Amino acid sequence: MSDSGLLEILSPVGDMERLYAALDFGADAVYLGGKMFGMRAASANFDFETLKKAADEVHSRGKRIYLTCNTLPHNYEIAHFERFAREAAEAGVDALIANDIGVFSLIKKYTPDMEVHVSTQAGIVNYVTANEFYNMGAKRVVLARELSLEEIAEIRAKTPKALEIEVFVHGAMCVSFSGRCLLSQYLINRDANRGECAQPCRWGYHLMEEKRPNEFYPVFEDEKGTYILNAKDLCMIDHIDKLAQAGVDSFKIEGRAKSSYYVSVVTNAYRMAMDIYKQNPANFSLPQWIHDEVFKVSHRAYCTGFFFGHPKDCQYYENSGYIRDYDVVAVIEECRNGRIYAQQRNKFNKGDVLEILSPGCKPTEIKAETVYNEYDEEVETANHAMMKLSIPCSMDFPKNSIIRMKK
Predict the structure, then answer these.
(1) Distances, alpha carbon 33 to alpha carbons 68, 207, 255, in Å
(2) Could you tell me which of 227, 303, 306, 296 has the C-alpha nearest to residue 265?
(3) Which one-letter DSSP state was computed for residue 359?
(4) Does residue 32 contact residue 54 with C-beta atoms inside 8 Å?
(5) Which residue, 31, 43, 137, 138, has fewest beta-carbon neighbours within 10 Å?
(6) What percent of the chain has pLDDT over 90?
(7) How far apart are CA 290 and CA 363, in angstroms?
(8) Positive or negative CA dihedral for 243, 244, 247, 248?
């Protein structure tokens, strides 16, 4: 087990809806971006007011909140960093996640009491680098994604116990080294190191021979196709015990641009897996239904990254699309008098078999024998976006439980 015993489930948050989702479904901590210096420019992100609101909500539940400032800022941006850092501290952020050494030094200058976590973009792959960041004042290092469990264990053994270790355990993988990629900037002038990645690694590629203009030929790595840079998604849900035994303190889920449904389901799965591990660390055994949960969100084919050595099977050559087997059809607002009251998210019909996911619980299957609209009229289908509806049900479920349906 990690030396600190922290074993933190750390969830991604792109807006307030996803913040509530992460907290409701069991995150110990959340990470999010501000309006500047973050690696997800396309996400909604948080201004000062919403950041303060988020921090207050997180702390009211006894959890922690980390703010990213992990881009590589250019000269003209440096003048804005003092305000950014001071507002983060004023809002109540527990830590800043930094990549650039200059940014690290400015955090220490402007907010000396602020906890600093060193981003995975720093590419930490050995204990010497980890120790130097600790000597500079880092509380935590987010290790590079290109490390095996044995290498992580050695870093843990050769660094101070006070230095926390965080790794990514789930989500999209980048073909570049720990997210430091130039492909997007070269091709379409969108800088991946400044939060603007267009994901050209997901594109299919062809060759054109100079004497045969406009004759395009597929680029084959093998017979399966042309997506030579397209990585599978990372999934370590079955290996929580091995990560903990290697000394990992924080288990980070990727996905600040993902949906609240993704955040809810994946956070819930890792929360339950971690709780099972804590109950009996020596004999960890993950129930099949928890393993299955991570397949009920939009995802690419899964792999285990570099944790078990060279990832020979981590590229996916057939296409760059997602696997989507389930739709969220409604979110529960309350249960009373033998009915579920909910708000619609996607169309479903009377007679459909639905599945309800509540925090920390095995999914429950029900059949929508009858569906009522907000005027208590029976309807054959819930087909209006965000419509209020109710379904007779003898069981009660907490607010914000998710109603989903297999496609």
Answers:
(1) 5, 38, 12
(2) 296
(3) T
(4) yes
(5) 137
(6) 71
(7) 9
(8) positive
Question: Which amino acid, 180?
Answer: R
| Nearest Cα to Cα of residue 356 among 293, 403, 288 | 403
Rg (CA), the chain: 23
Tens of pLDDT, residues 186-214? 566 776 665 677 776 666 665 666 677 77
Give me the residue label for tokens 């799965």. 269
The answer to whether 146 touches 306, Cβ cutoff 8 Å, is: yes
Q: Are 362 and 316 in contact (CB under 8 A)?
A: no
DSSP H or E segment with residue 157:
helix 149-157
pLDDT tens per residue, range 216-273: 655 554 444 445 566 788 999 999 999 999 999 999 999 998 999 999 999 999 999 9
Chain CA centroid to CA 59, Å: 20
**Burial (0-12, 13-18, 19+ Cβ within 10 Å), 137:** middle
- Tokens for 403, please give them: 């109603």
Question: In whole angstroms, what separates CA 125 from the centre of its chain?
Answer: 22
Q: What is the pLDDT of residue 62?
A: 98
Report CA 240 to chain centroid distance, whole Å: 16
